[in-house]
Description:
two-stranded parallel sheet; about 375 residues; HtpX_protease; stress response; alpha/beta; four-stranded mixed sheet; about 40% helix
Amino acid sequence: MQPIDPQPPQRPQADQSGGQPEWLRKNAPQGSSSGSESSDVPQPPQSAPSTAYPAAPYPGMPPGYPTAGYPAYGSAPVPPAVPPARQPRGLSPFGMPARHLWEIPLLIVVVALTALAYLFAALLLVFGNVNEYILALVFAPILIWFGRGVNYATQRVNGVKMSPTQFPEGYRMVQEAAARFGMAKAPDAYVVLGNGQINAFASGHGFRRFVVVYSDLFEIGGAAREPDALAFIIGHEVGHIAAGHTSYWRQLGMFLVPFLPIIGSSLIRSQEYTADNHGFCNRHEGARAAMGTLAAGKYMNTMVGFDEMADRAAQEKGFFVWIVNALSTHPVLTWRMWALRDRSRHGRLFWRPSPPPQLPPGRHPYGPYGEIPSLPPKPVA
Length: 381
């Protein structure tokens, strides 16, 4: 048997100053009423998890926009310092979408040529030298107004209008895109029978604007399960409206575009690049699948190698490649994919993209797809 300890361990006693045990007084914070000055026992560091974002911005973010990071678990995220609608326009998805740098110069040239054509037609009409082309120019305002009205009425009586109860996912995407671009009113949106065609367009009549998506293209957000691609396409079409491409006066000033082979088609291509910038700002994650759908259809869109096809923009060259792009109203797909991948510059209108002279070892020359930086790992509390 072990001998009994004559003096068992004593429990902590309260002192006369505060009535608290000694161990509690030693760990009390400074300024408390425990009466303890300091403790010789080292204490573990007490640090609360920080909710602040990193001080250094990530590449591609405009000045003034908060850098990406994970706040502490259970805490509210820090709101953006500047809303996207007040951000400077650029190619980054964080601010407002930029207009293609060639769009306005080409628009000025086309409008000037069209105005001269209207003046020339009016002079010929006064002097009695009239033919069908002169009449088309003279009555262009009425022809454009009539065509826009017929187009709008066709969608109203034949298309399925998106609403909170009819195609609600598409309706929500249209509302989100309009809000993202700072539009005061969201346009109407319709789904029409595509008969196998992959297409969508935006137009207007009077003060009304609308977007039309063919059923085969709209299906990629449903059965094909690519909602991000559908959001990119809807953002592209709503972007045409936000950029003023569907204005009656703009279409009146561009009446001669079909008769200006290189200049007219280049203006239309610059508008498509501008709309792509809007789609990228609305849902940049859907650019890859959207371009894959335009290249291979709604069933094989996920099988398209986006980077492999974009790389061919710098490889496919020659006079006929140049002429196909120059006469097209849309950028050729390889150039278009290149522009969506390389967000450091505007899409090429006339000359094929060129790769950098030397590739960095072990990585793609343009970094992550879409130049979206990866977020840091979530801190452990």
